[in-house]
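Quarterly update from the structural biology core.
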Amino acid sequence: MTKEEKLYIEIGLKITDAEQSQMFGKPCFKISGKAFICFFQNEMVFKLTGDNHKNALSLEGSQLFDPSGKNRHMKEWVQVPFAHSDRWKKFAAASLNYVRSGI
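Predicted structure, tokenized:
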């Protein structure tokens, strides 16, 4: 297991009621059956909106999540490189709050 994956799992396991699962064959964490974070290409991916989405996407190397690799971006999901792992926990909390608000 990579240091990136260890950090992803550590963040997810600290979130009360989050369940480890799969999304598009990729590891993710869900709340009430809805994915809010996942792990792809040794980077963490977050479902975000508003300023949190804008801030995550503005980080160098961040991009819209495209799990198929066929230029089919998931517009709410932002893939953030490990270089910005100091912000992963904050984005995970924002993602959780966003997904919970729609439940």
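The longest strand covers residues 34-40.
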